[in-house]
Amino acid sequence: MLSRLTTFLNNVIAINSLSNIINMLAAIFVAFVLGLIIYFTYKITTQEFSFDRELGLTLIIIPVVVALLLSVIGTNIARAFSLAGALSIIRYRSSIIKPRNIAFIFFGMGAGFITGTGLFIPALLFVLITCAFIVIFTAIGNKKSAPVKKTLVIAIPESINYDGLLDDTLKKYVTAYSLAGVRVTGGGTLTELTYYVKVPSDLNVKAFMDELRVLNGNFKIKLTQYVPTEEL
Question: Are 88 and 185 part of one and the same domain?
């Protein structure tokens, strides 16, 4: 019994040694700096209306938390797998929709893992190189003005046959389209069509809407940001 108590006390002293505490504080500081770099990269490469301040704060916290936990776990394989399982649960129970945001979350986790193992220079190089690629590819993508995915909802009165009615106009103004849903409303007097469309950045919205109004008899037309059918 006495030997077990002595072993326990020795382990506690070893864990709380000055060198371990210094290493832990260093890992926290480096992870915080890396989190700031990731945050500012996310901020400058995200459009203003899409920027999520809470996600940005999360990108600062995640590397710090992961680095701290990993520095405490050390080389204990079982605890490391437990940490990975806990982080997986957090990831899959989240409501993050955009793949880009998910990628930034994993980016922060990766930076935290590398920092937590004490590899500060590799962690810094990993973050700087990855952030540089993100900035470069974002700049290239913005110059190309890629088509934007949107949702088009248009109401057709029962007196008009909607089969193929909009095809010519859609081919004229959008780069791609797909009929996502058909819904009968107004007691059967209206048919509401939902399209997924990709519109060019220089789309003449007024001319597009005017042609659609002529086709549907001036009934409801709505062009909004892309929304999956199940959320409509």
Answer: no
